[in-house]
Amino acid sequence: MVKDGDARARSRQNVGCDEAGGTRADHGAERGGGGYARVSLVSRWRAQVTQALRETEKNLQMGSETVQPETYAAFAFTVAAEEAGARLDRFLAERENIAAAHISRTRVKALIEQGAATVAGRVVADANRRLASGEAVTLDVPPAEPAEPKGEDIALNIVFEDEHLLVIDKPAGLVVHPASGHETGTLVNALIAHCGESLSGIGGVKKPGIVHRIDKDTTGLLVVAKTDAAHKGLSRLFEDHGRKLHLVRDYLAFVWGAPDRARGVIDAPIGRHATHRERMAVVPASRGREAITHFETLEDFGVAALVGCRLETGRTHQIRVHMAHIGHPLIGDATYGAGFKTKAALLSPDSRAVVEALGRQALHAATLGFEHPVTREEMLFESPLPSDLGELRDLLAAG
């Protein structure tokens, strides 16, 4: 469904130089089969801290903590009377020191199931175990493991970087995350090499935190977390889709034809195509997820147009699917705009040559704005069109 209306107004001042690759937040799920998944290794860590815990046992206070930074963090607590009956995982996740260490409840539960928690001196692997008043509870947290993907020396265009996160201007052809068929040569491989020891660990594993993605052949801005604190804040931000929290994701898309309205809103659920499972499609609400795209025609070239798109949600291929849904697929999009290839015959010879050489959808993540998850600074980054799309724009404008 298309609604009339202005896209949300731009805000915030530019402080530096997202197509919906989907806001699939990578929550750093714990890996099975790793070193710390074996109870024998957990037992070895526990043996290392037993003496320290015994020395402090008589003085256990809510929130007390013993830390051996090179190997582990050992947390020890006593259940207060008003906390009797609490579940073990919830009790631990709500401790101030554990929250301050940015250890999520998901990770706490995984650690419990791996045998890293004790209650009244006994290992308890049941996260649902109910606690009694006065019981002593401990949790051993192992150090972050090295990332599974290997670092690779791949050049990156880094727009901004601090100790918590970085913003990348991604080129076309670069896959964001390793997957089947793309085990190496990805943005994650490049970031592991670039960040090195500055990665403090996402969910217990030293890896960059990918909270949103851009398709392999889409260019533009992408923010990546380097720490658990940044990852948690950015994940919350992208899950909110900018409705209550500050998030701006603006794209520039070259489409076939020009929308009838100068601006509008496409509100149409997106899900897997019924027969072509590798593709997404506009589907009934019962089969898809809410998807909302604001658009505005910036330049009308007759046979094509430059359209600005702002994401209110972030579904896989959202802009590509939505623009095709209203009859204006992206130039160069072989998946959602294959039926429009004959439109190229209406272009000038020079424009047609550029389109044929493009080899990808003409989509660029031009603006990314958000509140820094740690410093709370308002940030806004802009990226100019890459050379291939810049040339396409100039030739289309020239007729």
- How many structural domains in the coordinates? 2
Global shape: elongated
How many runs of DSSP E, i.e. beta strands?
18
CATH homologous superfamily heading of the largest domain: Pseudouridine synthase
Question: SS-based structural class?
Answer: alpha+beta
CATH topology of the largest domain: Pseudouridine synthase
Which CATH architecture of the largest domain would you pick?
Answer: 2-Layer Sandwich
Query: What characterizes the major β-sheet?
Result: 11 strands, mixed
Percentage of residues assigned to helices: 10-25%
Strand content: 15-25%
Mean pLDDT level: 81
Plain-language structure description:
It is a single chain. A hairpin with a 7-residue loop joins strand 13 and strand 14 (280-282). The protein starts with a strand and ends with a helix. The protein is elongated and about 80 Å long. It has helices spanning 39-57, 88-93, 96-100, 105-113, 187-195, 228-240, 318-325, 349-358, 387-398; strands at 2-3, 65-68, 72-78, 117-119, 122-123, 136-141, 158-161, 165-170, 209-210, 219-225, 247-256, 263-267, 270-272, 280-282, 292-300, 304-311, 363-371, 378-382. The chain contains nine helices and 18 strands. The protein has two domains: 2-29 and 147-398, Pseudouridine synthase (2-Layer Sandwich), CATH 3.30.2350; 35-141, RNA-binding S4 domain (Structural Genomics Hypothetical 15.5 Kd Protein In mrcA-pckA Intergenic Region, Chain A). It is an alpha+beta fold and 399 residues long. Strands 1, 7, 8, 9, 10, 11, 12, 15, 16, 17 and 18 form an eleven-stranded mixed beta sheet that branches. A five-stranded antiparallel beta sheet has the order 2-3-6-4-5. A two-stranded antiparallel sheet has the order 13-14. Mean pLDDT is 81; it is low at 4-71.
